[in-house]
Amino acid sequence: MCTSVQVFHQETGEKDNLKILAGITETFISAHDLARVLSSKLYVNNDRQKIVLYLREHRIKLSSETSFIIINEQIYQMSQFTIGVEEDIYLPAESFFSILQMTVLPGITYDSKKQLLGINIVDFNITGLNIEEKTNGTILRIKTREHFSNGNISAFKHNNGWFYITIKDGIIDSVEVKRTDTRGVVHKVVADQFDESVQLAFQLRSDIEGFEFYQSSEPDEIVVTLRTPLSKSAARIKEVKNRWRLDTIVLDAGHGGKDGGTIGKYGTKEKNITLDLAKRIGKLVEKNTHIKVVHTREEDIFIPLWKRTKIANETNGKLFISIHANANPNRNIRGFETYFLRQGKTNDAIEVASRENAVIKLEDQQKSIYTGENLIIATMAQNTYMKESEEFAGIIQNELASRTNSKNRGVKQAGFYVLIGASMPNVLIEVGFLSNPTEEKKLKKASYRQQIAEAVYGAIFMFKQTKEKLLVKG
Ligand SMILES: [Zn+2]
User: Fold this and answer.
1) What is the rounded CA–CA span in Å between residue 474 and residue 467?
2) How far is the CA of 260 from the centre of ligand 1 (A)?
């Protein structure tokens, strides 16, 4: 009979021996000696005959004269009681190693007949999972320790109501994954470790419209977005209806404070024109309807772009109108145009968007907050409102065309930052070109600005009516 378990380190080829308790037939290994073999930190509490092994971030708590061990606060039961001898605790080898393999050391193998322990410190590269619920989707964050090649990740939705994601070369900490709190559209999670891959299966509470995934590197994660239809859930219909009721609008006077916007030949500043227009539109709405008006600014102050949509979202705005004045190196160009959000399509639109977005550089927070999954969620919200935004933009253009004698340059699409993230239909109006001296002169006149304000107010009124007709039908 052997007096020790033979240990073989598979990566280095080194051999070692692990001390066992002599004099009994079953193999009991020494916790102290195991700590040496695994080169883990060992914490001993002599008073209560307890030993804690630290294996990287994992904590294994051992006590003497019990069949239970605690790994990362989870309790596991072994086939036999541990034996306390002086300051050491001896553990039933076979069941202890099988628990260890299942939980924190996937790379160990133990042959009880030969008393041979193989150690291959492969580490989990998938260490956990978080699930977040958003308004129109559920986000799965699969925590990873490395970047997988994109070809190694595949996902699909089965018509049995499960969503599967398979990660080749993944080694998953299934114990940690089991502890994930499910929420949103995810009812249940099952992790399966196969020889060359990991499969995560998510049982869904309801159908999803689609999904996207990508890898992020800080932190290392695979982020999966499961999109759920807003209207499907019966409980949400009322909420959705209220959401549609046009009871609050947000008027966003472009620029302000240190950000003057564009300047005309006669010194007219965009930030002053936009503020005046926002106030005029607001007054008309308040006087003639019960719609609540929220201004992103009412003075000549600087407000970062992200804060403007934040204000809109926090006040439950149902319509977001950002007001701007245009500029072009060609001083002959004149007219008004209304944008709704989409990746820039034409060069013109890209040019205007990049000029209006330039203010981002003035913001304290240099980086856009719309990166990674924020952008996905923002884009998801935009898809919902894009159709309405386009429709509203069309109404504005018609109203402006019929109430002013300026040129109708049409509805356009571009990726304005100020429009990203607004959870409501939203448009950006370029009321005219300050770079065109004739148009600048007109915009300087209060009576002309009042005409524009009346046109935009008229568009809001028409849009409200269109929406409420739909509500009655629905
Ligand atoms: Zn502007």
Assistant:
1) 11
2) 9
